[in-house]
Amino acid sequence: MQQTYNSSRLFIASCLALLVTSLTFAIRAKIEGVFSSDYGLTGEEIGWAFGPAFWGFTIAMFVGGLVIDVLKTRTIVWMAFFSHLIGLILLLTAKDKTMLFISNVFIGFGNGSVEAACNPLVATIYPNTKTKMLNRFHVWFPGGIVTGGVLAWLLMTQMGLSWQVLTSLLFIPLALYGYLFFGQVIPETERVATGVSFKDMLRNVGAPFTIMALVSFMILVASVPSVTIDFNSSITYIGLAVIVGIIIVEARVMNKISLLFPLMLFGMFLTASTELGTNQWINALLEGAGIDPMIILVVVTGIMAVGRYFAGPLIHRLNPAGVLLGSAVFSVIGLYLLSISEGAGMTMASAVLFAIGICYFWPTMLGFVAEYIPKSGALGLSIMGGAGMVATSMVLPIMGRSIDEAGAQMTLRYMAVLPVILVVIFTFLVLYMRNRKAH
């Protein structure tokens, strides 16, 4: 006899788990300045120490996506809880780049486990409104950054309290989501419920083994400072061309399936870097804007939260591909204007345009895969989210070095190139989906 489950309680618990994840992002954006001024770390060192929060996230999502149907969603949820608990305790004791690095390993693993468990869980308990409910679930990512940004401004800027006080507040939503998940019946993932085999799930990822090897190499580059990629070398681009060729062969020849998933994966590299890379460095990028960067972060993420909550009608009208194309266009405009903005008013207006751009990126990318490549299962969603995070972990030290050497405004201009590429990708995606629908 099939056990019933409490959809509302599971959804609220999932949202609180994502709230903990997002609060860690807001806190990192604030304490970046503390570790620079009080502990003497350079921008590149801070970017390296923050990296595990992203590639640890990726490892957890990949492992979770592969084993969730064996270990069950419940196990992945508790892995998230205890990783968060250990990571936050270690963060409170961090005073150098090594301890900051180690704490972010656990925090990143906890954050990734939340996404590995909760993305397929939300898609399973709301099978008829996947993209809408995934957008509502991901309200709590910008929502948490708004909350964290306000708390950071209030406690540290206004009240002069230490960053450890701010960090300690994360134990409240951590305890709440642990309580709400405790003792609950959690359903099988949609892949298991619909009878899609593990082998077929792998096949629908397109080129699973090449993709996993590629992301593993990206984790190595992000975590070992001595391993670098020279983007001024022709060897780098020859290597990229070889990787693309291998993916095409594995997907089209071996698996005999479309390249839609690999295309979305590449898009995820760029959408996540555009959104998360910029937001994580917002303190350094906009410190001369004439307004507290944390206030700008609150406004940006507040717009994202509202937009995601009311995403349903927009997605219905434009479809996910159209929403992604519009998002890329606004992101280009927003980043370019931020790179030339002078004064609080123009900076805030540019930030609003940027917020509109990045608002729907993450949940709509996941929703697109859940709706149009459903047989990729929990693994597909985990690879998408994990790839986005590891791309961000690679871009953070690059941005840190650029800020140190070229300055904030030039770094923003460099970052605007990423959504320009996305405009091309999503234009193709819109045309492809129209052709697919016509057939």
Structure description:
With 439 residues, this protein is mostly helical. It has a single domain, classed as Growth Hormone, Chain: A, CATH 1.20.1250.20. The chain contains 22 helices and no strands. The protein is globular. The N and C termini lie far apart (41 Å).
Entry summary:
With 439 residues, the chain is mainly alpha-helical.
Average pLDDT taken over every residue: 84
- State the total count of DSSP E strands: 0
Strand content: under 5%
CATH topology: Growth Hormone, Chain: A
* Rough outline: globular
Total helical elements: 22
Number of discrete domains: 1
- CATH architecture descriptor: Up-down Bundle
What class, by secondary structure content?
mainly alpha
Q: What would CATH call the homologous superfamily?
A: MFS general substrate transporter like domains
Helix content: over 70%
**CATH class membership:** Mainly Alpha
SSE run = HHHHHHHHHHHHHHHHHHHHHH
Low-confidence stretches: none
Rg from alpha-carbon coordinates: 20 Å
